[in-house]
Amino acid sequence: QTGLPSGMFSLLQGSGSEIGRLLVRHEDAEAVGFTGSQKGGRALFDLAATRDRPIPVYAEMGSINPLVVLPGALAERLDSIVDGLAQSVTMGGGQFCTKPGTVFYLQGVDGDRFAHKLAEKLSASPSMTLLNAGIRDRFEETVRHLLSVVGVQAQVTGSSSGNADCGTFLLSVGSDAWRAHPALHEEAFGPAALLVSCRDLEDLLDALKVATGQLTGTVHTGAGDSQADIRRVSAVLEQNVGRVIFNGYPTGVEVGHAMVHGGPYPATTSLGTTSVGSGAIDRFARAVAFQNVPDALLPPALQNANPLHIWRKVNGQMSDAAIVG
């Protein structure tokens, strides 16, 4: 009905990675977008690089999305943070790539209450069904791997039932063990979170710096937190994530001009792009400059008769570049 070429959209289904490999190798493929595991995304990225004519792979490969809760925030609204965080961790069965998987907080009375209440809240969560049994099995395998690290304790342990049902998990660990064991930095794709307790702000910042290459980073603040402390936390997040959130939760991504759903490797294979938002189209476009080209020979979008071109010129947004597919 719109006149688009037939075959512009095709859906190919199959198990395993064979179809993905064939598509990336195909001579007509110019670029690849991928959402999935780090193992799968990296395999396609490496495969595309071995072609006679390499092509870009824009792989979005998940994240632990660090979330920091500062003391001032706990003093003001501990209960509401627990409620919001529990909902964010379990939303969609924890199968959001922006799920806050690792939570940093300071030890102390409020910190202990926060950890205890979050465990209570998550333990009351009903069993949920994941997308399929394979995802559920891989999720529980990842949780077992995390629990095998010395120093990690299970605060909430869910149980499996049926084809793809599973319960919620909450694990805890100290900051020293968190820094010492890279295995703890692995994403658990499902309803689980890891609490990292820190001795003081300096300890928290050192632990947070280890969480590199993430899609999102969140910080909850209150009036009792100094602007200097907040700025230091935000600065660390800014260097390591694609989207910084204040006093909210990262789950869900709004399609808009300012959205950045990306981040440094290993969150993505292309840190300068976004896979959601209007900027996502730039991944599949190529920039061309037209210099001293007669108006009649320019692409229609750049000709003087184009109303949009005239508007840009009048408003000081003149450009002699066009983006072509």
In short:
By secondary structure, the protein is of the alpha/beta class. It has nine helices and 13 strands. The longest helix has 20 residues.
How would you describe what is shown here?
The protein has nine helices and 13 strands. It has helices at residues 18-25, 38-49, 71-90, 109-123, 133-147, 175-180, 201-208, 227-240, 307-314, and strands at 32-35, 57-60, 67-69, 102-106, 128-129, 153-156, 165-166, 169-174, 192-198, 214-220, 241-246, 286-289, 321-324. Helix 3 runs parallel beside helix 4 (109-123).
Furnish the topology, listing elements before pairings.
Layout: H1 18-25, E1 32-35, H2 38-49, E2 57-60, E3 67-69, H3 71-90, E4 102-106, H4 109-123, E5 128-129, H5 133-147, E6 153-156, E7 165-166, E8 169-174, H6 175-180, E9 192-198, H7 201-208, E10 214-220, H8 227-240, E11 241-246, E12 286-289, H9 307-314, E13 321-324
Parallel strand pairs: 1-2, 3-4, 3-10, 4-9, 8-9, 10-11
Antiparallel strand pairs: 5-7, 6-8, 12-13
Q: Which keywords apply here?
A:
single chain; 325 residues; alpha/beta; seven-stranded mixed β-sheet; two-stranded parallel ribbon; 9 helices; 33% helix; globular; disordered C terminus
